[in-house]
Amino acid sequence: MTDYDVLRVFCAPNGGYGNELGVVRDGSVLPERSDRQAFAAKLGFSETVFVDDPERGVVDIYTPTLRLPFAGHPCVGTAWLLDVPELVTPAGVVGARQDGEFSWIEARPEWAPPRTLRQYATAAEVDALPVPEPGTWIYAWAWEDEAAGRVRARAFPGRDDGIDEDEATGAAALLLTAELNRALNITQGKGSQLLTAPQPNNWIELAGRVTLET
Prior knowledge:
InterPro entries: Phenazine_PhzF-like. The protein is 18% helix and 39% strand. By secondary structure, it is an alpha+beta fold. Strands 1, 2, 3, 4, 5, 6, 7, 8, 9, 10, 11, 12, 13 and 14 form a 14-stranded mixed beta sheet that branches. The mean pLDDT is 94.
C-alpha cells in the first residue's frame, strides 16, 4: 500500500470546505509515470502530488486522467506540508512562504492550463448554474463586491472522470487575477476561500488555508 497524506486546500475561515489533495511524500515508491497516473486515478482527487525531492521541493502533479506541469491548489498545499521556500515543477520554480494562517505561492499565469473565464452579472446567477456537459473547462464568476475585490466563482472541469465541479482552483484564480490585474478575494465552490495579489513582472501570488486530514 502506498502511503499518502490527504490535505484540504483553500479552506474557509472556520476550517471547512477546501479542495482535497493527495500527496505521496516518497515519490520513489512509484517512479513510473504510468503507475503515478494509475494511482491518481485510483485516489480520485482532482489532483495528486508525488514528491521526488522533499528538501528541494521537486514535485510531479497528476489529475485522475493526465499529468500537469503546474497546478495551484497542489502547490499551495504541498508547500505548506513540506514547509519549503520553493517548489520545482515542470513549468518552473514556484516561490512559497507561510504568513500566519495562509500558505502563499508565487507563480506565472501562463503556467496555468487554458480555462474559459465566464463572467456573470450576479453571484446568485453563479450559484444557480447547473453542471454543464463535459467539454470546455469553465470558470464561472461574478463580482460580490467589485470595489473590495470580492468574487464568487465556480469551476467546471468539463472532464469525463467523475469530477463535475472543482471546489477550489488556484490556476483559474491566477488567470482571473491576470485578466483583471488586481488583488482578489475569491469564494469558490461551497465555501472555499482563495486570495490573490499581482506582483511585478507578471508574477501572481496565490494563497489559502491548508489543513491535514490524514
